[in-house]
Amino acid sequence: MQMIHREGLPAPLKLVLPMALHNISVPFANLLGLTLSSLLYGIYLVLFLVYIYLGINGTIARNAAGGTHSTISRRVVKAMKTPIFLASLALFFTATGTWILTIYRNFRGWIPSDGGPANPSVFFDANADISETIQNALDALSLLIGDAMIVSFVHFAMVLSGELRENSQIYRLWAVWPDWRILAPVLISFTGLIISLIITIVNTTRISVISQDVGITAISVFELLTTLYCTLFISFKIYNVASASASSAVGERTLTYFLAIFAESAAAYTAWILLYALLTPGTASSSSSPAGVVSHQIRRAGGYWARMALAVGYLDDDLLRRSFRGNNCVFYHLPPFVISIPQTHPEPHSPR
């Protein structure tokens, strides 16, 4: 029976890899991947449907589309013009395709065909079936879309949803990082991830055994670097704003609450990347759903912050100055003005 070995894993992972993971069979790893992918896809599907509903019927979407009485078609068109909304749709299609192919390949691997006995050990570790290449391509697209969305959160200062970027005041509150020295490392890591994914997809059409593909190690490393780097700078930015607004809250939430949501999402995704490196290829089929779950968790925080901030008018110039100190931001104030409201009193009627 074909086993998953530790060759190609980074040295730290080889040291901490438990004995139980040394000789996991390929069929067991694929069954584990099917179980995890189905569970995570179910969570992701619920979050995606909620996000689509709020994105089309939310207060911000209705107001941006022309009022509370705007038609659904206008709100859909308005939402479709938002890059994050389009990226969410693309991620949903790739994640769904990956999950469907996971089920298809498990049926193909475990059920006898052509009158012969089923041989899952050979089927799951071979590249003879075109479904393996298509699944790898969809999984690669999911990882790229998920990482691109995380990188965009770095550039736009982070936990805000796509609708927020169209509101100038919220955009001022969450300033961009105007320094390419901060963005350069994550862009380099993202480029390395793209190259690694392309090499891995090409390898699936050339090598006969999936477990011999050492490109998976590079994918795990670049994924880990991108996630940790983005998490560090996003958390740092949110922490600075939270420190400047320690006494302020939006609704019943403070920025510390949103920082906790982002941190737990990033930690969960980091743990999944490590599991991906340890159990590949079994978990390769379920990498799309965790990316979707994490991105929707982050946008959940951003969406709540947007609605409550607009509802309570949470835009304080003093807070903005403290938050933007050193970020080359300019604030404009309207001159004072007086509104005169004349009042007229009817003359009393004189008695006749």
From TrEMBL:
Keywords: Membrane, Transmembrane, Transmembrane helix. The keyword Transmembrane helix applies. The chain crosses the membrane at residues 28-54, 84-104, 140-161, 182-202, 214-236, 257-279. It comes from the Eukaryota. This is Uncharacterized protein. It comes from Mycena chlorophos.
